[in-house]
Design a protein that fits this description.
Distance between the termini: 56 Å
Strand order of the largest sheet: 1-5-4-3-2
Number of strands: 5
Strand content: 15-25%
Largest sheet: 5 strands, antiparallel
Length: 151
């Protein structure tokens, strides 16, 4: 019985450490702040616009759940945004990159903190030009999030 447990544990360890195929892992960038939720949301919208992106969707999930009768439900928002010039560049490099569009930021409160998170573009693909573009976009996405949470 102990041998089976050890063998099973080793198998889990080995498979858990197996390298991911290039481009399959999607990292996230997340920060938290004690700044009021509505202030962070307003700053996020400003940062998106100032970086030449257009908001294409805003889901106010928490508000909708409260409006449907669940009082005191916390805020949850998702904001989708895009820049057509960046989108065109990305899609010309890799049509498969459409799965990373539009850019997305989520916000919610947890333990009296406002959490802001965005998914980043993968930088470990087999296309060096795409990796460079993704690195530049990731820097921009992080700047947008950081601007929103600055005190």
């Amino acid at each position: 019985m102990i041998r089976q447990f050890v063998a099973f544990s080793c198998l889990l360890l080995i498979t858990g450490c197996a390298p991911q195929p290039p481009g399959e892992f999607i990292p996230y960038y997340q920060v938290e702040t004690s700044k009021p939720y509505d202030e962070v949301l307003a700053e996020l919208e400003v940062a998106i616009a100032e970086n030449n992106f257009r908001i294409t969707g805003h889901s106010r999930i928490g508000k909708v759940i409260r409006d449907r009768g669940t009082k005191d439900f916390p805020d949850y928002d998702t904001i989708q945004f895009c820049n057509l010039t960046h989108a065109k560049t990305l899609l010309l490099m890799s049509p498969h990159s459409v799965r990373h569009m539009p850019c997305n930021v989520v916000m919610y409160t947890f333990r009296d903190k406002t959490i802001v998170s965005t998914h980043l573009l993968p930088t470990g693909t087999e296309n060096p030009e795409l990796n460079q573009f993704s690195t530049e976009m990731n820097t921009l996405l992080k700047q947008i999030v950081d601007f929103a949470v600055e005190q």
